[in-house]
């Protein structure tokens, strides 16, 4: 086993803008750069490339044998697949071992918070910080839908948070996961991240970090590792999204369709974890929501990404651009790594529903903001559901 690495600051300088996405790890500012490849355990022959993915890789001039042997770590402009139709994510068995999961926790470099009071649109007063509270273990008993997303980018392994959501095409048998757009795609200056996988109830027993050094895969991933076989985010995020400044944040959402890494029992993700949340695309106006609960695995200091936390607060409004939808904002001290985590409130039927996800926050970590889910979000959700409706 490798020893636990200390948290590292991002190597690249971050522009001193107000807002940063809360993914735990830097996004590449130049798609032409080729940083050194992250350390990766040997995957041997355990990489599965379905025929349709083989065809798409070949269309982009990618040599399948080289990809199997580690060429997926090549992030040059020609091979960083960008467009919505270009997503490919071949399964590399055992790539996400306990060490690699634990080490995927590198927070963004701190920057000074700027004044956003002059932004157009409706923005309420900055909320008072709400201290994040640890979820009581086992996490599965409290929030069975929550988990972590792991993925590889140009500068190494990164993490986000995510939520199992219902699939209208497969009632009770969903394989759909909701997260942030910036957890799957780099936005306007990059493309799709690679080796995207979801681990529900990561570190379910809430083991302290030192004990995780010798933890088995079953202990950190008791409900398995689920690889994204399709991912979709908004066209707006792909066109506008950036890691700082809040660009594209009102459309910073994504849906991952997953499949078990090693086949498993034949059960769906929803059946495996025992729950999935409905998604509310027409939630009440922000002033009418009494309370929102945000869940995630924050990894920036003082957190280390290994435990699940929650914040509960009444939402306010945040407008990044007047022409774009107003976002929800709550007080919360969660940090990088909490991105993509579900925001849950009572839906129109009074039952818990996912109404947003963590997207941006100031580096001072006093609040978080998430998109209000409207027609664009519904379009992404429906498209993923329909893609697998007959399977």
List keywords for this structure.
single chain, alpha+beta, six-stranded antiparallel β-barrel, 18 strands, 22% strand, disordered N terminus
Q: How would you describe what is shown here?
A:
It is a single chain. The protein has 391 residues and is an alpha+beta fold. 14% of the residues lie in helices and 22% in strands. It is built from nine helices and 18 strands. It has helices at residues 51-59, 64-68, 98-103, 139-142, 209-212, 217-220, 235-240, 269-273, 375-387, and strands spanning 20-21, 47-48, 91-92, 133-134, 146-153, 156-165, 176-179, 194-200, 226-233, 254-260, 292-296, 309-313, 316-318, 327-331, 342-346, 352-357, 360-361, 367-370. The strands form five sheets. A six-stranded antiparallel β-barrel has the order 5-6-7-10-9-8. The relative contact order is 0.19. Mean pLDDT is 83; it is low at 1-18, 25-45 and 106-120.
Please describe the topology of this protein:
Blueprint: E1 20-21, E2 47-48, H1 51-59, H2 64-68, E3 91-92, H3 98-103, E4 133-134, H4 139-142, E5 146-153, E6 156-165, E7 176-179, E8 194-200, H5 209-212, H6 217-220, E9 226-233, H7 235-240, E10 254-260, H8 269-273, E11 292-296, E12 309-313, E13 316-318, E14 327-331, E15 342-346, E16 352-357, E17 360-361, E18 367-370, H9 375-387
Sheet of most strands: 6 strands, antiparallel, barrel
Give the neighbour order of strands across the main sheet. 5-6-7-10-9-8
Give the overall pLDDT as a whole number. 83
**Gyration radius, in Å:** 19 Å
**Helical residues, percent:** 10-25%
Say how many strands there are: 18
Query: Beta-sheet strand percentage?
Result: 15-25%
N-end to C-end Cα span: 39 Å
Order of helices and strands: EEHHEHEHEEEEHHEHEHEEEEEEEEH
In terms of quaternary structure, the protein is: single chain
Low-confidence stretches: 1-18, 25-45, 106-120
Number of helices: 9
């Amino acid at each position: 086993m490798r020893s636990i690495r200390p948290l590292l600051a991002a190597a690249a300088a971050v522009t001193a803008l107000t807002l940063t996405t809360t993914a735990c790890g830097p996004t590449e500012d130049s798609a032409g750069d080729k940083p050194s490849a992250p350390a990766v355990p040997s995957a041997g022959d355990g990489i599965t490339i379905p025929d349709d993915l083989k065809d798409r890789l070949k269309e982009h001039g990618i040599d399948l044998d080289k990809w199997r042997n580690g060429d997926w770590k090549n992030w040059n402009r020609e091979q960083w697949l960008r467009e919505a139709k270009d997503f490919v994510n071949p399964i590399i068995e055992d790539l996400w071992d306990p060490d690699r999961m634990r080490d995927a926790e590198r927070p963004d470099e701190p920057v000074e918070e700027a004044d956003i009071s002059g932004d157009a649109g409706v923005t309420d007063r900055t909320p008072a910080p709400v201290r994040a509270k640890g979820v009581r273990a086992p996490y599965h008993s409290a929030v069975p839908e929550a988990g972590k997303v792991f993925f590889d980018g140009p500068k190494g392994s990164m993490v986000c948070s995510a939520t199992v959501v219902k699939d209208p095409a497969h009632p009770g048998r969903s394989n759909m996961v909701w997260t942030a757009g910036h957890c799957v795609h780099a936005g306007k200056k990059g493309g799709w991240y690679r080796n995207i996988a979801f681990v529900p109830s990561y570190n379910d027993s809430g083991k302290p970090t030192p004990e995780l050094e010798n933890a088995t895969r079953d202990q950190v991933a008791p409900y398995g590792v689920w690889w994204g076989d399709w991912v979709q985010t908004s066209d707006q995020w792909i066109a506008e999204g950036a890691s700082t400044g809040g660009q594209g944040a009102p459309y910073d959402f994504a849906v991952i369709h997953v499949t078990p890494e090693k086949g498993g029992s034949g059960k769906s993700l929803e059946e495996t974890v025992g729950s999935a949340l409905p998604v509310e695309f027409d939630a009440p106006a922000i002033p009418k929501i009494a309370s929102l609960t945000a869940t995630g695995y924050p990894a920036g200091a003082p957190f280390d990404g290994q435990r699940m936390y929650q914040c509960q607060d009444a939402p306010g409004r945040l407008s990044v651009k007047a022409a774009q939808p107003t976002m929800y904002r709550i007080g919360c001290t969660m940090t990088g790594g909490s991105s993509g985590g579900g925001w849950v409130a009572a839906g129109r039927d009074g039952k818990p529903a996912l109404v947003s996800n963590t997207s941006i926050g100031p580096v001072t970590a006093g609040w978080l903001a998430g998109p209000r889910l409207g027609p664009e979000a519904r379009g992404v959700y429906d498209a993923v559901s329909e893609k697998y409706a007959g399977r």
